[in-house]
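Re: your question about Zinc finger protein 706

S., sorry for the slow reply, the queue was backed up all week. Below is exactly what I fed in.
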Amino acid sequence: MARGHQKIQSQAKTAEKQAKMKKQQGHSANDQKKAAQKALVHVCAVCKSQMPDPKTYKQHFENKHPKNDMPEELKDV
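Result:
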């Protein structure tokens, strides 16, 4: 069992390791995927592709589906 200065060093090292582990848990790949999925709110009516905003959706529709009629929600964007 450690005593004195060695004990203090061991406690500091353990606290640092615990803080590092806690920080890594907050940034897991699964959490990032969930946050990204929440940002994709507009879904293309033709191909079901997801976009974050109406401007991107309109550009997508003009480039990928030029023969199809523009949806009503995109005509004023």
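Strands lie at 42-43, 50-51. The chain has a mean pLDDT of 87.

Happy to talk it through on Thursday.
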